[in-house]
Amino acid sequence: MTDIDPPVSERSETASAWCMKIAERPLTAEEARAFETWLEADPRNNAAFERASFIWRALDGANTSPIRVSVRMDALSALGGQDNEPSWWQRPLVRRSAFGALAASLVAAISLMVLPPAPDARGVDYATALGERRVVMLDDGSRLSMDAASEVSVDYSGDKRQLVLKSGRAKFDVAKNPLKPFSVVAGAKLIVATGTSFSVEILNGEVNVVLFEGHVAVLDRVTKRPAVVPSSGRLSAVDALLQPGQELSLRENGASRLEPVDMARATAWEAGQLSFADEPLGQAVERMNRYSPTKLVVGDPEAAAVEISGVFNANNVDGFVSNVTGVFPVTTVRRGSETVFVTRK
After folding, report:
1. What are the residue ranges of CATH 2.60.120.1440 in the chain?
2. What's the CATH fold of domain 272-343?
3. Pairing between strand 161-167 and 134-137?
4. What are the residue ranges of CATH 3.55.50.30 in the chain?
5. Residues contacting residue 179 through CB under 8 Å, at least 6 positions apart
6. SS3 342
7. CB 162 within 8 A of CB 62
8. DSSP conformation class of 294
9. Stated pTM of the model
10. Is the dihedral of CA 300, 304, 308, 314 positive or negative?
11. What pLDDT, on the 0 to 100 scale, is given for residue 197?
């Protein structure tokens, strides 16, 4: 007789129900045995429970129903009727060979999330001026590196670490703490991580996420669904999760672009350099404006589309203007207090 696997949604619902029960209160001895039996019944149950725990934390736990968690799990897994888990979900959260001790510690650890929280800490705002860069060590050991003309608010109250990138660009080197997810809000997007290194940038309404190490999920801020709309009509793991060395660009109109990124170029700004490789002049100018006391403007669509390459000292705006106009088919004109790039006739 052939065993029939339970549907994906059933496995997801069971995993999220266990997650909710463990978060609410300690398991009874009978429930602990039932939980152990379920975990041992199929190795995929371990992976499902880990996904449920991740999504539970990302969705603020106690405010989330099992059905909502399982829907998010199915969306992120994109199983399409098969249990093909993304490879990074495969790390077992609970080791069956030592279930007793680990189950007890899991119950104790997750229960911390539902204890009455300490009085909410006031949010802290950090900002950099024109041409200024700043590195901030956060209370948990995470490091916040800010580009010029950027603003980030930090809220470590309750059981989460939530930051909001209000403008500019910042890099986040996250201290690992899987019970306190680290999330960054940028526009309409939510980037969720546990321990990793990534940067987020807001540029002309576009949100750019570069992953240097670890894993992050990029979600819609409101729906908590993957921010990428798949062209095939079916979600896949890559629709939610970036891999190291990738950059995900998300536009306000819903369009998205996923590309490999040169790590050295992507971090050059931390050392005071702006590195461009076939970058549209319109985007390069916006990045340079974080350092320029004289506002730079692109005066026509043709000039904005010119692709430039080169490495420029961020604080040498005159050098940037001179090199761009000397090599590429654009020139500049003065318009009041602005320097305007226009197509060379």
Report:
1. 124-263
2. Phage tail protein beta-alpha-beta fold (3.55.50)
3. unpaired
4. 272-343
5. 57, 109, 110, 112, 113, 159
6. strand
7. no
8. S
9. 0.65
10. positive
11. 95
d(CA 285, CA 324): 10
Q: What is the pLDDT of residues 78-136, one digit of tens each?
A: 333 334 433 333 333 333 333 333 343 343 333 323 333 333 444 789 999 999 999 99
The second-level CATH assignment, the architecture, of 124-263 is Sandwich (2.60)
Q: Assign residue 254 a region: left if phi > 0, alpha if psi is -120 to 50, beta otherwise? A: left
CA 164 – CA 124 distance, rounded (Å): 10
The per-residue pLDDT for range 219-255, each reduced to its tens digit, is: 888 877 776 544 443 434 444 567 899 999 988 777 7
Token digits of residue 47: 């992976």
Residues in the chain: 345
Rg over CA atoms, the chain: 23
d(C-alpha 234, C-alpha 86), whole Å: 15
Structure tokens at 219: 């979600």
